[in-house]
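Hi everyone,

Forwarding the result from last night's run.
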Amino acid sequence: MLFCKDITKNIEKDFRKIAPRDHIISEITMNGSQCYLTERARASFRDLFEIIINSIEFQNVTNNDVFRELRRIYVEFLSKNTKPTIEEIIEKLHVTLNSLKKNLNLLIPTEGITIEQGCKFQIGEITLEERKEDFFEKFNLVDGVFKDLILKRYESHNYWSKITIYGSEKYAEEYVTSYTQHHLSIFLIYITACSSKYFTCSRIRLLLNNMDGYKTLTQLSWEEGVPSSLSYKSSLGTFSIVNIDEIMMIGFKKTSFHISLPKMVDKKNKNEIESAICRCLYWFGEAYKEPVLGMKFLKLWSCIECFFSIDHEEVTTANAVGIATVLKTIDRIFPHTSPKNIKYSDYKKTAKKFYKLRSEITHSAMYDHIQVSDVEELSVWVISVVYIMIYFVEEKLYELSEVKKIIQKNAAELVAKEASYDETKLFNSNLKM
């Protein structure tokens, strides 16, 4: 159908009405002439594209790249009056798609940090560097509007994150967002583990979109009917700058977050637990950059939802049991840093309270009942959960159902141990009486 003799109609002879959704493949240029495809050809091309996309895994290109190159190959064969085999189309498609791939360096302005001299900041393939005076010398830019504009943009930020991506330009544009956000979340988890204050009082951001930077905010005000009363009030932001030094980076590199998570994010075929961890990283990053406390809390709770409520039954209890068991496990692993005398039942009770706070946001549209301390405590919980999930992955667990069985077994032991302790305590108290 794609290579029939009547496949095209000359645009000068056939002014057909083309549906907007068909426009991208309706009009083609062939041998210098503009042509419209027949409706049958348009439908056949869409079918061919869908079959190819669903049958072949193309690396480091987007579906848009595949569509555009497939269209170009189709026009090329059609203009030569050649009817290719599907193998010839696929072979040529691979060649043209490979020609689109290159190592692309991207610089992304970054806010909320300083780097001490001599300290190298790197997470995965992301390197953070301070603005350099001689950075553009290697590009041999010609004096003019473009050079002036790019220098002005570059000099407007002190720090830039550099990442090299192999693939097409469209692939790099799409990939860089998820890649940088996931890897930044790894570092955010680390600094929040150092101090939960970082989670609410700092705002490290890669400016991937048109976001407001660190700048003075100005508010205008005037009295109604009295123009001469116009005035303005300036206020500085509430976010602190995080100073990164060599000691911080040495500590970061020793953690399981730095050792395990970048490899997990980069892994092509993730198991169920690894996929859940990566979803958790995404939501942790979203929660971190969210300015509204209620939404910050809600997004943090989404991190918890990645792991424990897998069968959507008794969600509140499943999350509470999972969190409480993890936190008691962390208390046992790090007794010197854990709060004293917090029982399993206390953790479970607080988890249920937090779930209620979360439900009031989603179901009752409440937003002003979340406190900074709630957000900071929940951020530490999420880090504890990620830490334990990394351990499960290293122990060769693959599915969340396996995690659930272990959690339930440990929870039962904690309940029994706590009940035994309470009975012993009561017995000793009675003896003293």
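Confidence is low (pLDDT under 50) at residues 9-24.

Cheers,
N.
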